[in-house]
Amino acid sequence: MIEAVGLTKRFGAKTAVDQLSFQVRPGHVTGFLGPNGSGKSTTMRMILGLDRPTSGHVTINGRPFRELPNAQRHVGALLDAKAVHGGRRARTHLLALAQLSGIPEKRVDEVLGVVGLQDVARQRTKAFSLGMGQRLGIAAALLGDPQVLLFDEPVNGLDPEGILWVRNLMRQLAAEGRTVFVSSHLMSEMALTADHLIVIGRGRLLADMGVQEFIAHNSAGFARVRVADSDRLGAQALGEALVKAGGQVLKEPDGALRVTGLTLPHVSDLAHEAGVRLWELSPHRASLEEAYMRLTQSAVEYTSTEDPRAELFEPEPLTVPAWEDEGAHQVSGPTAAAFYAPPPPGAAGAQPFLMPSRPGDLAGTATDPEDPR
Amino acid sequence: MTAPTPRPAAYSSPLPTPRPHLGHAVASEWTKMISVRSTVLTLGALVLLVVGIGLLAVAQTSAENFSGTPFTAPALFGLLVGQLGVMVLGVLTMTSEHGTGLIRTTFTAAPDRHRVLTAKYLVVGGVGFTAVAGSVTLVALAGAIVHHRPGAGRHDIPGELLDGLAGSLYVTLLGVLALAVGALVRHSAGGIAVMIGVVTVPPFTGAMLSMWEATQPAGSTLIRYNAPVALMQLFGLPNTDTGAIPPAWVHFALLLLVTGAAVAGSYLVVGRRDV
Hints:
Pfam family, one (chain A): ABC_tran
InterPro entries (chain A): AAA+_ATPase, ABC_transporter-like_ATP-bd, P-loop_NTPase
Number of domains of chain A: 2
Family (chain A): Belongs to the ABC transporter superfamily.
Distance between the termini of chain B: 34 Å
Number of helices of chain B: 10
Largest sheet of chain B: none
Number of strands of chain B: 0
Structural class of chain B: mainly alpha
CATH superfamily of the largest domain in chain A: P-loop containing nucleotide triphosphate hydrolases
Structural class of chain A: alpha/beta
CATH class of the largest domain in chain A: Alpha Beta
Radius of gyration of chain A: 25 Å
Helix content of chain A: 25-40%
Largest sheet of chain A: 6 strands, mixed
Number of strands of chain A: 13
Strand order of the largest sheet of chain A: 5-6-7-3-8-9
Strand content of chain A: 15-25%
CATH architecture of the largest domain in chain A: 3-Layer(aba) Sandwich
Oligomer: heterodimer
Strand content of chain B: under 5%
Order of helices and strands of chain B: HHHHHHHHHH
Protein name (chain A): ABC transporter ATP-binding protein
Helix content of chain B: over 70%
Shape of chain A: elongated
GO molecular function (chain A): ATP binding
Number of domains of chain B: 1
Order of helices and strands of chain A: EEEHEHEHHHEHEHEEHEHEEHEHHH
Number of helices of chain A: 13
């Protein structure tokens, strides 16, 4: 169990981590997400007592890290795969770490086997690839067989097989009842690995919820309806029927309709009643990746002047069809949130995801399944 | 929390959980020191320099050269260069961890940082003293075996060997000071530069300051109190052109004062600093 309360770190005028409060529970893989420079690594370093917080505190199993009696046996961490002396052999590196806490030497060979480095154990680590370095770092984290594990970007530099291995390892470690806290900037990876997500941007907490909940909150679904091309009037008629039934309709550039607020069978029934032939009626889910980008958009620190993410976003100018009267496309807040991916935090309007105003709020929301949105 | 999965009971490990103590950290530091080429080469170079130059000096001298001069004297020539090896060893023990980022792994595994730092001091001190004292004693014994003849006059060999050990201790203290400097500056090149400066700059500065009457007192003080002069004196080759020679213990006290301050500073800084 990792518990942070009001964690803040300032470097001069720059606030790297701002009033961050969260809990990481045992038995789950908790993903720690945020864009580059959002304060993930600083937070991890504060958890591990490497940096001292400007204010606030963080405890592991109820104690500050530096007061744990045998830290290595309680907490294992991979912070930086390159944080080894390149001139030292892999096994000696681990041996020196093991000796530091009186961990038996046979454990070194065990963890080398776990991460699959037994064949290169006697090589100097400067010849290691980034992936091998990550495995060595994971081996170091596992040395003390700890209850709490922290991994900072563990899949960086791994091949697909390695990524799968890390994913399974994390899940297995959590299934054994350990606390597993994994940082990443890849939403797609975390969606597959984590049970719970903590999302930060610019050092602030953006979301703290289960993965399923996060998906439900932050990715919007819609139905795409395509009326037969030959049936121009049919499209008009169907659109009016849909709006009358309480749906919201936008027109895509190629003439298809995006419908929200109505279930697929209901749309089908309406089309049948209106006597309109459909060529397509399909459910769509905005990707989690996109939802995450929207969520962290305003929190991204370093952006290219030529924004490569542009192509990932939906083409913006969706036209409001003729049958929607003037005011109709002023869709209400919650509907808009469901239709588009939610606006970035700080934007005016509804709050599409959990954003505690006080650190104390979190303890309540994190445990409450019916979170008060 | 939406995850419906039952939460397993907290994990408990079958590994023994001893409370880590200084001995563990010393074992770890020893492993670190002997498992990297740079430190092993530094130590090797130190021993080779002291023993090599020392034996060469023994071979090129006659018994008469040792009348009034202790048999440890030949070791001094190598040691004046070899002391750099001890200092480099001291600096590298700390800065190689900072340079590679290993320090974060180390302090994550052992958040009681003072235990690690103490272990480093012990290992550098122990290894440095063993290497220097061993080399010096070897050279002194060689000198005694070859040149202990009537021409060399009277010699108190155990006493001379003890003086050699005192000289080795002085060099070891320089290594400890180097480790403290390494912990303070956290940079290999910077730390080594500082240490070379500490050892080599005072004699030159003293000589330059002695040029003018106004700065002459400061200059002569610097010339009398510095590391090379102290070493020469400890090895029985006092530099007599500088006037009144301070007793050996003054040199020791001076170095102990500087080293003590730097070591205290290193404990203070390493304990608090973000790494």
